[in-house]
Amino acid sequence: MFQKTDSLPTEPQGKPKNTGVSSLSLLQGIFPTQESNRGLAHIEARMKHINLSFAACGFLGIYHLGAASALYNHGRKLLKDVKACAGASAGSLVASVLLTAPQKIEECNKFTYDFAEEIRRQSFGALTPGYDFMARLRSGVESILPANAHELAHGRLHVSITNTRTRRNCLVSSFPSREDLVKVLLASSFLPIYAGLKPVEYKGQRWVDGGFTNSLPVLPVGRTVTISPFSGRLDVCPQDKGRLHFYVSITNQEVLLSVANLVRLNRALSPPSRRTMELLYRRGFDDASRFLLKENWFE
């Protein structure tokens, strides 16, 4: 129920009552001061500060490449406001390409298809004795990243890696040399046993897949647009349909508990057929395009 309130007293006619509010104060309320303008500019700058984050996902990274292609071809309006890119595992690899060599996305596709085909041909996949997963991955990274990739990525690329001793996450964004950048990217993609037995050494310590501790980095300043091939509470992702929506948080990534996501998880480590990977690429492209349209960034 509404409470009854007393009626307001009638203001006496004639000389206006002194309210203690000066004309200057009233004008300041109408016309913003220099200080309030600075505050508005700061808020506007934060709203324009956009980051992109690509989730850890193994061979589902082909989805990320589809999304990156859509952003590069139809999201220039968005990309000009992007201050930083972040990622874990395969997500960090795609983030590095989008920042340093976006014109090589098609070349990345070819490498990914060939890499997956090579693993499918092995008797026990990546676990086949004698097969060097990390050497093959390094060759692809080396061939795609430009000579000045570390300079282009410095301060703008945030790579999630996990320390084997402390089991804590670290987001690396400083790359003094190209080799530093390559090592950090390889560390973020190192899944013990699957990728080998010896973790990647960087700055005197050993590091493994960033997906173990932070599979979807969200940066502290501005808005982080999240991208993942797993259906969930994310900006760009597949939209699984179903009556019951149960979500589970996996190292900073809130995903839908669904059969489709379980199938995707299996495909992340066991690369699917070429045809399935092509469909994943197209799905990433379409989902990212849909996001750009919704946010009025598509062109």
Automatic annotation (TrEMBL):
The gene is PNPLA4. Residues 1-10 have a biased composition (Polar residues). GO terms for biological process: lipid catabolic process. A motif (GXSXG) lies at residues 87-91. InterPro entries: Acyl_Trfase/lysoPLipase (IPR016035), PLPL (IPR033562), PNPLA4 (IPR033902), PNPLA_dom (IPR002641). This is Patatin like phospholipase domain containing 4. The lineage of its organism: Eukaryota, Metazoa, Chordata, Craniata, Vertebrata. Keywords: Hydrolase, Lipid degradation, Lipid metabolism, Membrane, Transmembrane, Transmembrane helix. CDD domains: Pat_PNPLA4. The active site is at S89, D209. It comes from Bos taurus. The chain crosses the membrane at residues 52-72. GO terms for molecular function: retinyl-palmitate esterase activity; triacylglycerol lipase activity. It comes from the Eukaryota. Residues 52-222 form the PNPLA domain. PROSITE patterns: PNPLA. Residues 1-20 are annotated as: Disordered. A motif (DGA/G) lies at residues 209-211.
